[in-house]
Write a structure and sequence with these properties.
By secondary structure, the chain is α+β, with helices and mostly antiparallel strands. The protein contains one helix and six strands; from the N terminus they run ββββββα. It has one domain. The longest helix is centred in the C-terminal third of the chain and has 13 residues.
Length: 89
């Protein structure tokens, strides 16, 4: 299942720079944080805020209604355990 019960509507996401999972069924799931002054000139010329990956190699603009539609908490310890079990399996 793409979205489990932990996913919430994007309207309730904290926009304080916290790292969270964001996603949309047509696009996928990504670990990102909101940057209120960020921009990507290819998609939005004005710095009105944008979703960025923690290493800033990917952005996701909300312009035109094409941003993420759901979010859930990012749990670093859980992700480390999950990555470790995948590399051992």
């Amino acid at each position: 299942m793409f979205f489990d019960d932990a996913w919430m509507d994007i309207q309730s996401v904290p926009r304080d720079g916290s790292i969270v999972w964001v996603g949309d069924p047509d696009v996928g799931q990504f670990v990102m944080r909101w940057n209120p002054s960020g921009s990507n000139s290819l998609f939005q010329p004005d710095p009105v805020g944008i979703w960025e990956s923690p290493d800033e190699c990917m952005t996701w603009s909300e312009d035109g209604g094409f941003g993420p539609t759901f979010w859930k908490q990012f749990d670093l310890e859980h992700e480390r355990r999950r990555a470790g079990s995948q590399s051992n399996g």
